[in-house]
Amino acid sequence: MVKNIPSDYKGVMGVPVSFLDSYNPDQFEILGSNRGVDQDPNKIFGKGSYLNGKEVYKRLFIKHKKK
């Protein structure tokens, strides 16, 4: 999984939750995740990704750590 993440990209990337299986805290910073409204009582994050009314794609937002 991590081998598919561009090593020279400096922005924020959305990756599947399965990324945690190969997560290296020295290499990546986890910034957050997309969240459903039910997990966001103030409704500041908006809806997650939905298909036919069901949330289908949970993503973590990550960024390369500076060396």
Average pLDDT: 79
Record field, number of beta strands: 5
Main β-sheet description: 3 strands, antiparallel
- Give the strand line-up of the largest sheet: 1-5-2
Number of domain units: 1
Structural class: mainly beta
| Intertermini distance | 21 Å
β-sheet strand percentage: 25-35%
What's the Cα radius of gyration? 13 Å
Number of helices: 0
Order of helices and strands: EEEEE
Taking pLDDT < 50 over at least 5 consecutive residues as the criterion, the unreliable ranges are none
Helix content: under 10%
Question: How would you characterize this protein structure?
Answer:
By secondary structure, the chain is mainly beta. Helix content is 0%, strand content 34%. It starts with 12 loop residues before the first strand and ends with a strand. This is Modification methylase. InterPro entries: EcoRI-like_methylase (IPR025247). It comes from Candidatus Nealsonbacteria bacterium CG23_combo_of_CG06-09_8_20_14_all_36_12. Pfam families: EcoRI_methylase (PF13651).
Question: Can you give keywords for this protein?
Answer:
Modification methylase, elongated, 0% helix, 5 strands, mainly beta, 3-stranded antiparallel β-sheet, EcoRI-like_methylase, 67 residues
Summary, kept brief:
With 67 residues, the protein is an all-beta fold. The chain contains no helices and five strands.
Topology readout:
Layout: E1 13-16, E2 28-33, E3 49-51, E4 54-57, E5 59-64
Antiparallel strand pairs: 1-5, 2-5, 3-4
